[in-house]
Amino acid sequence: MGLFQISEERTRKEMIDPQLEKAGWYLRDHSKVKIEIPVDGYDAEPWNGVTDYCLYRENGEVLAVVEAKKTVVDVRLAEAQLEYYVREIEKHQSFRPFGFLANGYDIYFVEVGLSAKRLVNGFFTRQDLENQLFIRQNGKPLGAIEINNTIVDRAYQHEAIRRVSEAFEKGDI
Question: Is the pTM of this model over 0.90?
C-alpha cells in the first residue's frame, strides 16, 4: 500500500500528528489537545459527531477543531462536517472556534461564517490562534477608520478607498 493510499488512522498518526506537534500541539498534553471529542446534541447521521482533534486555550475553551481525512480524500469535502462541529462547540463557549481541514498533504484554515477557507503551510500555534481571535474580537471595520488627509487629499482617492473598504467588508475581495 503506497503512502498516497493509507487509511485515515495512519494518515493521522504518521502525517497529521507530527504536523500538529511541529506547531506546539503536543498530543500527550491534554490541556492543549484532545482527540475524538463528541459534539453535544448530535444526530448521528451522516457523520459520527466526534471531532478528530480539538485544540484548547489555557482556560479550557476550544480554540480550533481539526477535521482529518485520509490522504486520497479531497479534504475540502469535509467542510460541512467541520462547520457543524464548530457551530455546535460555539454554543458551549464564548466564541466560535477556528477550524482546520487536513489530509496529511493539504491543510486548510477555516473561519466558519467569516471568510473563505484558505490553504496554509501548516497548523497555527496556540499563540497564532490567540492572535487571530484577538483580531476577530477587537478589529474595526475598514469603513470606520479615518483616512489620513496628509497621505490622501483628493475626493476621488477618498471615494476609491471607501469602495475598496466596502468590498472587503462584503467579502467581495
Answer: no
